Amino acid sequence: MARNGYFKDDYVPYFVSKCNRRTPLIHLGYYMRVLTIDFTLRSFLEELSAQSAQIVSCGAGFDTSFFRLAANSVLHPNVRFFEIDFKEVVERKTECIRSSKPLQDCIGPYEVNQNGAGGLVGSQYHLVACDLQVLDKLESSLKLAGVNFSLPTLLLAECAICYMDEASASSLIEWAASKFEDSTFVTYEQVYPNDGFGIVMQKHFEDMNSPLLSLTKFPDLESQEERYTSRRWESCNVWTALDMFQQILSPGERKKIVSLEPFDELEEWHLEGCHFALMVASKGNLTDWFLKYADVPQRPIGMSERPHVEWELVETLCRQPICRFAQKSVKVTGNNCCDILIIGGFGPSAESLHGRRHEVINIYSRKEQHMENESTSAVGNNLDVEDVIQECDVKLDMLHHTCTRLSLYGPDGATRIMVYGGRYSPCRAVNSWPVILTVVKCETGLCIRMEKSETASIENAPQARWRHSAVCLIGSSSLHAEDHVAVFGGRTSDFRVLQDLHVWTVNASDLKISCREVTDCSSSSSRSWPSARFSHSAAVWRKSSMVVTGGLGEELMPFNDVWCFSLESETWSKLTVDGMLPRYSHTSAIYEDKLVLIGGVNTLPGNQPGVCVVDLNTTSCCEYTLPMQDSMRPIMLHNHTSELIDSTTIVTIGGGGNCFSFGTVFNNCIVKINAQQFR
Question: Is 0.85 topped by the overall pTM?
Answer without folding.
Answer: yes
